[in-house]
């Protein structure tokens, strides 16, 4: 599995963290469906995500970008399940068609591990 941090969803070409306009910060996951299903990936995502607050701006909105109708149906089904589990509370997650993805700056890649190693110097 490969995970890349970047930007997608907008019309801007080559957005950057300092110059992001209509794009959204995103994670691109390349996976082997013979090892893990798309549905299972989304279920794991949902365990670590709180989609019940409306986004303050497009850069930080919650979204799932899909490239097939089947994936759209799976994503929408998961969001409906999340809503039901919270007693009908609104779920703020857009399900959109895939748009070009632009890799983020290197300092954003593997960010948590980089932060852990730099913090350990101060413990």
Can you walk through the features of this model?
- With 123 residues, the chain is α+β, with helices and mostly antiparallel strands.
- The chain has one domain (2-120): Peptide Methionine Sulfoxide Reductase, Chain A, CATH 3.30.1060.10.
- Helix content is 30%, strand content 20%.
- The chain has three helices and five strands.
- The strands form two sheets. The chain has a three-stranded antiparallel β-sheet, with no helix packed on it. A two-stranded parallel sheet has the order 3-4.
- It is globular, with a radius of gyration of 16 Å.
- It starts with a strand and ends with a helix.
- Mean pLDDT is 89; it is low at 119-123.
Count up the helices. 3
CATH fold assignment: Peptide Methionine Sulfoxide Reductase, Chain A
Rg, rounded, reads 16 Å
Which quaternary structure do these chains form? Answer: single chain
Shape: globular
Described by strand count, sense and barrel closure, the largest sheet is: 3 strands, antiparallel
- Can you write the helix and strand succession as a string? EEHEHEEH
CATH top level class name = Alpha Beta
Features:
two-stranded parallel sheet, globular, 123 residues, alpha+beta, three-stranded antiparallel sheet, 30% helix, disordered C terminus, Peptide Methionine Sulfoxide Reductase, Chain A, 5 strands
